[in-house]
Amino acid sequence: MWVRPETDPPLPQEGALTQMSAVRPITVTFPDSSLPDVPVDVELRFDVGLPYAACLAFLLSPADSEADRPELCWYFSRDLLNEGRHGPVGEGDVRVRPGAAGAVLITLHGLDGRVVLSAPQDAVAAFLADSFALVPAGSESGRLDIDTALARLRGTSS
């Protein structure tokens, strides 16, 4: 039997609403591209069911409703994003480092190459503050929802 440690916050009362995610729309640029100053709207997302992860979501095209809008999500470590604001981190498909004054550079490596995004440091910091308010650093393992994580990996809803 699994027992919740005493340090965990109490479970919400029946009928109480609990915030389960944080979403922060931000505008990024692609400094290494042929159009380095063209802004692109993306979202940084955090879900308490995936407490170690942050999602960088690209909204691919306009749609009649938000539910119909296709998107591409890159999942990576929330700690990677946090630590990358202060110095270069990452060895795999996602690397993060401080950029020019007021920017965080996120490099995504895929099958077709790599892309470097420049995100406003204050927006990244605000997103991280929102996510750490939901799941404080060090408490992630007590919040991990394996079913949600597996559903996300399979591309199905939980």
Automatic annotation (TrEMBL):
It is found in: Cell septum. Keywords: Cell cycle, Cell division, Septation, Sporulation. The keyword Cell division applies. Its main location: other. InterPro entries: SsgB (IPR006776), SsgB_sf (IPR038658). Pfam families: SsgA. Coiled coil: none annotated. Signal peptide: none annotated. It comes from the Bacteria. Belongs to the SsgA family. This is Sporulation and cell division protein SsgA.
